[in-house]
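Session log. Operator J.P. requested a structure for one protein chain; no other inputs attached. Running the standard single-chain path with token output.
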Amino acid sequence: MSIDVENNNGVCRVVVKDEMTIYTAAAMKTDLMDQLTRCDELEISLQDVSEMDSAGLQVMLLLKSEEQKLKKELRFVKHSQAVIDVLEILDLVAHFGDPIVLPAGEAQ
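Structure written below.
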């Protein structure tokens, strides 16, 4: 897992790359929590996430919880199919409240 960060006047845009799994969760948690505390707004792009398991989901849930405690604004955007699959299986799409754009041909 790696992240690219762009900070523009307190608005941070982060692109998560590779996997969000048990193998990367500890580093991901540290890196993303650091960004959440530094920025007024944090936008996390998930378009390059190739695999996600429950550990990756737990990091997302933690960030959402901390967003409220810290009175920050957090958005997950550009969800990859791997992320969409996990959120849909666990019926958590509405919990995050972020719009998910389905790839063409997959709308129901």
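Operator note: The CA atoms of residues 67 and 73 lie 6 Å apart.
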